[in-house]
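Section 5.1 Outputs to date
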Amino acid sequence: RTAADFRRVAARVGPEGERLCREQDPGAPGNWCFFRIALERDPRMPPNAFETEADDGSAVIVVGATLLDQMRSDDELAFVLSHEMSHHIAGHIPKQQAQQEYGALLFGGLAAAAANAYGIPASPDSIEQAMNLGAALGGRVYSQTYELEADTLGAYIAARAGYDPSTGAQLFERPGIRSEGGSWLLTTHPGSAEREANIARVEADIRAQEARGLSPTPPRGS
């Protein structure tokens, strides 16, 4: 895919993501449902895409040019953009931050309690290490669930924009992108087969809604 492909697909997917965002959360504050979609041309960035939040509450979706190079269709690009927009719509970043904070406090408290139990002063370094571990583990607890949620919402956004979610999900089979899943402790992404099976189920619902003349709409809270 080229930069021109990126701009064309983003122009179609962006408005649909904003529309679904307002539908899912009609009371969303300010710029919450406003998306800025950017292409990062730095060749040092790995083949990846991510979502972050700007200071004004809007979302910023960034796709690395190295990932764009691996895409074989507009459907794949549309799915990636829709997936990252869905992380924002579902509020995954603030949820994950809260889990990290809880994990840090929990592990820090456990480390201090363990030291006290043995009559050993808890050093600041040991507490900090425990809190860092707790934050890391806390951020991973629901990460695979969040990825599947973003795949689900993203499929509806991509379909509304006129793209095929199942074809888009073929990106998971690409060398260097494919995920095999595994222990929740070791990976933040579910396996590719699980993700593709989930997309197939979602697409069946999308096609059923389209057959009834409806705009594909996920269940509230999906």
